[in-house]
């Protein structure tokens, strides 16, 4: 009897290794199961070559560009251009032309000295 009491006391004082937080069994989601079942059983309709008719425009190769039209008066314009006088800046001109072209835009006035 003494041996039995010692065993009971030793079992009672021995640390019991148990989890101290509660757990619950995961519940099955019926809606999710039905959705996944239907999703797995879905077969997409086969794609046909005529499915795109009416949905997209048919491709047409672009037209070849047309060359630019040369005006009939091009030789006359060219000869007129060649006969024009070339105006070059910095070339000496006659005195009469210089006087007519030059204008005094900026006149420098003499500085006045300040009197104390």
UniProtKB/TrEMBL annotation:
PANTHER family the record matches: ATP SYNTHASE SUBUNIT H, MITOCHONDRIAL
Name recorded for this polypeptide: ATP synthase subunit H, mitochondrial
Species whose genome carries this gene: Lipomyces starkeyi NRRL Y-11557
A matching Pfam family: ATP_sub_h
InterPro entries found in the cross-reference section: ATP_synth_F0_suH
GO MF term list: proton-transporting ATP synthase activity, rotational mechanism
